[in-house]
UniProtKB/TrEMBL annotation:
This is Ferric reductase NAD binding domain-containing protein. InterPro entries: Fe_red_NAD-bd_6 (IPR013121), FNR_nucleotide-bd (IPR039261), RBOH/FRE (IPR050369). GO terms for molecular function: NAD(P)H oxidase H2O2-forming activity. The lineage of its organism: Eukaryota, Viridiplantae, Streptophyta, Embryophyta, Tracheophyta. Gene3D superfamilies: Nucleotide-binding domain of ferredoxin-NADP reductase (FNR) module (3.40.50.80).
């Protein structure tokens, strides 16, 4: 079953255990913000450590929404239900991935628990375009050797096709 949120893209995503985020072209902007927020909230949930002297669960609750405690230093919610988040970025313009390259690298480093799964899809080449096949072959070899995608410059694999949504939904439902 797939369920909302149906309002603004950044509305109530923290209330779900599994989130599928899809950004098309520049529409990835709010999704990148959500991803960064997810990682930041995970980081602050881990701050509930007796050795650091701060307990996020012992602080005042958010009475306007009654959705959990607020971290005393930064007003972050500490009740993130998220267990897994998937982000698919699809664009026809390969240079688009440069817009958020630094943010994607930062998110990868911060996601210690591996909660996020990130996918970049470039649809600017046709199905039978030899360039995509050649680049994909070199890409697989280089990523296996170095762990970095030659196209994106990150560990996030750059795909030269649209996502197969049927397979994506099936895989997510199996993993959940």
């Amino acid at each position: 079953m797939i369920d909302g949120p149906y309002g603004a893209p950044a509305q109530d995503y923290k209330d779900y255990e599994v989130v599928l985020l899809v950004g098309l072209g520049i529409g990835a902007t709010p999704m990148i913000s959500i991803i960064k927020d997810i990682v930041n909230n995970m980081k602050y949930n881990e701050a509930d450590d007796p050795e650091c002297g701060i307990s996020t669960t012992a602080t005042a609750t958010n009475s306007s929404h009654n959705k959990g405690s607020i971290h005393p230093r930064n007003n972050m919610r500490s009740d993130l239900k998220m267990k897994r988040a998937y982000f698919y970025w699809v664009t026809r313009v390969p240079g688009s991935f440069e817009w958020f390259k630094e943010e994607m690298i930062e998110v990868e480093k911060m996601d210690i628990k591996g909660v996020l799964e990130l996918h970049n899809h470039f649809t600017g080449y046709g199905k039978e375009d030899a360039r995509a096949s050649l680049i994909a072959a070199i890409q697989c070899l280089d990523q296996a050797k170095n762990g970095v995608d030659i196209v994106s410059g990150t560990s996030i694999k750059f795909h030269f096709r649209r996502p197969n949504w049927h397979d994506v939904y099936k895989r997510i439902s199996r993993n959940f």
